[in-house]
Amino acid sequence: MALTEEQKQRHRRLTAWRGSHRTLARVSAEGTLGERLAALAADAGSVHDLDEWTDLYGDGVVAEVERRVAELLGMEAAAFFPTGTMAQQVALRCWAGRTGNATVALHPLAHPELHERGALGVVSGLRTVHPTSAPRLPTADEIRGFPEPFGTLMLELPLRDAGFVLPTWDELEAVVAAARERDAVVHLDGARLWECGPHFGKELREIAGLSDSVYVSFYKSLDGLSGAVLAGPEVLVEEARTWRHRYGGNVFQQYPAALSALLGLERELPRLPEYVAQAKVVAGALAEGLAASGVPWFRVHPEPPHTHQFAVWLPYGSEELTEAAVRQAEETGVTLFHRWSDGAQGAGLPPGVSFTEVTVSSAGLEWTAQDVREAVGEFVARLERTGA
Predict the structure, then answer these.
(1) H/E element holding 90?
(2) What digits encode the pLDDT tens for the residues 33-48?
(3) Minimal CA–CA distance to 163: which of 314, 25, 14, 358?
(4) How far apart are the first and last CA of the chain?
């Protein structure tokens, strides 16, 4: 079958990134089907008894994932979902029924607003309001002063489309307290909650404990295949299981995703503090390298990063920036950046600015600050050759 031009370009990017001997993060989607299956088969026995019968509609290994996550987050119960989008929509729908208020307060850059095609309103009949439009989570004063009632406050930790930003612990506590004063429940979009501990200086169960419910993802930070968990009070989770079935999420067998989730909890979760610390080194060196490179303008945000991910903005077209990144990987075997996108990623920047997201994981631990600065120089040299 003939490939489209976009498919050809994607294959080229994946080949370049996969072939690099040095990268800041190995992304699971860059592996082949055979590689992913072989790795799962080789490693899964270290986290679960593979002589057990396979799961059927959520028992077995899937139930073990639920148990582990509920314990980690200090919640009464947890339910496994095929996607975080479904888990979160169900959670917010359930809370609307229990509070009697179908209005959800959240950030306009939150995942349901940007990436779910209006599903909260179209599918669940919920209404959303925005206590702030600033590229950060709302403050306690903004919650207290919001001029209309809402039943649920949803907080995305970290706020990905603002640059993976987090409040301080005191700010987070104050926001939650302000919501409680208004008799609202608090739900955490914790797709990337796993890596928030170092910033707050708190354990996962203490962070999750501020909320009434929390959703976590397994593929964003833990290198899982897919899947998510909604955790909270037993009565809420039982209702969520009913809605999961209605939404078509009561999947016959999910053992590959569940096994990869257990592997992530066992292997990646303990290493996330290392990744967060290294991200600060990488971000600082990136800023130094860009400042020395002669580019007319740049932004590394936040600096230092709050998690092991952060954003970089440059005043060039996304196609030119992506081409320079791919050429660097092809010609030097070093992947500094992945794909770039047009737009300001919610920061109100002008047209002509592109951004990329930088993730630091185990592969990035070997980089020194000098390695990063040198890679920036190589990248900018190739950017200039593209005519940008």
Answers:
(1) helix 84-99
(2) 998 999 999 999 999 9
(3) 358
(4) 34
* Tokens encoding 131: 């206590």
Q: How far apart (Å, rounded) are the C-alpha atoms in residues 201 and 240?
A: 31
Give CA–CA dist 41/175, Å, rounded: 44
Q: Phi, psi (5° rounding) for residue 159?
A: -80, 95
Strands 152-156 and 185-190: parallel
- CA atoms of 99 and 44, how far apart (whole Å): 41
Q: Which DSSP category does 123 fall into?
A: T
Encoded amino acid at 219, one letter: Y
378 CB burial (10 A radius; 0-12, 13-18, 19+)? middle
pTM value is 0.94
Taking the C-alpha atoms of residue 78 and residue 231, their distance in angstroms, rounded to an integer, is 4
- Residue pair 228/83 in contact (Cβ under 8 Å)? The answer is yes
Please work out, in degrees rounded to the nearest 5, the angle formed at the alpha carbon of residue 17 by the alpha carbons of 270 and 156. 45
